[in-house]
Task: structure prediction
Amino acid sequence: MRRAGAVVSALCLVSAGALGENGEWFLMSRHGECAPLSVLGRKNPEWGQVKDPYQFIEKMRTAGHRPDVREYSMGKGTAVQVDVPAVELFVIFVERSACRGFIDHER
Result:
């Protein structure tokens, strides 16, 4: 019974870590600035509704694409690189703490 409790605790920790800081994820630019995930909607309106990299990956798989996914542990959280060559999309999702600044995506 103790083993089952440890497994549940471990799963909770993994789930909490996967959500990022307060569950808030951003797209990172080349220079470390971040933009909200809603900018994905410029390429496809449905993509602008995703809340985290894992939801985006699932959308890509459901659409029949094969995303190449790489996760990186950074000193300031987690980064998830998602490359989808079929739709010419190569993005990096990061937690807020990894952002150097924020891009005004309304321009």
Confidence is low (pLDDT under 50) at residues 1-21.
